[in-house]
Amino acid sequence: MAQLPRRAVLRGAAVTAATTATAAVASPAEAGDRHAGGKEPTTKQPITTNIPRGQEKYFDPYYNVVRGQVPASYHPWVSNRQDRVLLYSRTAGPRHAHLGPALAAGLNPALTPAHVLQNAIVRWLGEVGVAVDWTEDVTQLPGIGSTYKAVIFGSTSRDTLWRHGTAVQPGSAVNTTTGAHLDAGKTALRQYVRAGGGFVGIHNAIGGTEYNWPYYEGLCGGTQYYDHGALQAGTVVTLAKDSSTAGLPARWEFKDEWYNWMPFPTRVKFLLGVDESTLATKSGTHPGHGAFHPISWCQYYDGGRSWVTALGHDSAAWTDGSGYPGQAFFKKHVVNGVLSAMGNLPFCG
């Protein structure tokens, strides 16, 4: 598997707006390798092979998909998508405080002020004309023919797509004869992405979600969260020009847990990184990533678009006017990232 060139070196004051802009411009050969395939198709194309015509070199045999910055692999199979997204925040393990208590079943259950992330995404996207439905009910995930432009996984955890307990009968062992489709959520998500759906993963969505499903790992950039250090201040470095980094300074302050990755993400466009030299402490186990520690990236994946960020641990980051360092930049990054995954802004270009 070819390794993408590093976009920038995160070294203190050496990274400026000028060097960031320069680093985002690859050599013609590198650019051709990453962006081959031209523009996204706008009409349905006959499917005669597992790999879109001309995209053989971008096929990833481990994840069994075409992935990378390959616009021609996008599948516009659903023509009536709406300016509406689905926010999914179910946790099957640890639950971040910004999610509040578990939500009731169904679509759009009642939210309280404790549901900080959900309220923020509904409000932030409403400000740019995008409607949001929300759920923690695995049966509500979009699938074949869905008109949602994107599905957002907000700090999900563990086996979030498993319909737990369905096949368990009171007073008896697990019923192995049931016809219950316990992993229907996985089927729905995969079919949704393959039909040209947009996927957005925020914070713990790439930090402890669906550890044992390779397709999901690939959707998140061929990587998984390994561990993190303390919640602490650090300097974010803007690595590339993109719809989701427009208006962000070359360097800006933020507070987060600064996830470490294993394996390291591949075949993606790196958008943001953290300057490790600005962190007071690090994980006691993982050595970190040295001069290049990415925290946001995007890619085309199996016919759909995928945009992810590890940022967003603290509830104050989701609260306008909180005074949290970099909160306005974080909001801009998330909103524009969602809009790009929807196709409302140019994606991962």
Spatial separation of the terminal alpha carbons? 21 Å
Q: How would the global form be characterised? A: globular
Give the beta-strand count. 13
Strand content: 15-25%
Mean pLDDT: 87
**Radius of gyration, in angstroms, nearest whole number:** 20 Å
In terms of structural class, how would the helical and strand content be classed?
alpha/beta
- Helical stretch tally: 6
H/E series, N to C? HHEEEHEEHEHEEEEEEEH
List segments where confidence is low: pLDDT < 50 over at least 5 consecutive residues.
Answer: 1-35
Helix proportion of residues, in percent? Answer: 10-25%
Describe the main β-sheet briefly: 11 strands, mixed
What is the strand and helix layout of this fold?
Elements lengths: L16 H7 L4 H8 L23 E2 L4 E4 L13 E7 L27 H11 L4 E5 L12 E7 L29 H11 L3 E5 L11 H6 L5 E3 L4 E7 L12 E6 L3 E2 L7 E7 L18 E8 L2 E6 L17 H16 L7
Parallel strand pairs: 3-4, 3-5, 5-6, 6-13
Antiparallel strand pairs: 1-2, 2-12, 7-10, 8-9, 8-11, 11-12, 12-13
Organism: Actinoplanes awajinensis subsp. mycoplanecinus
Protein name: ThuA-like domain-containing protein
Keywords: Signal
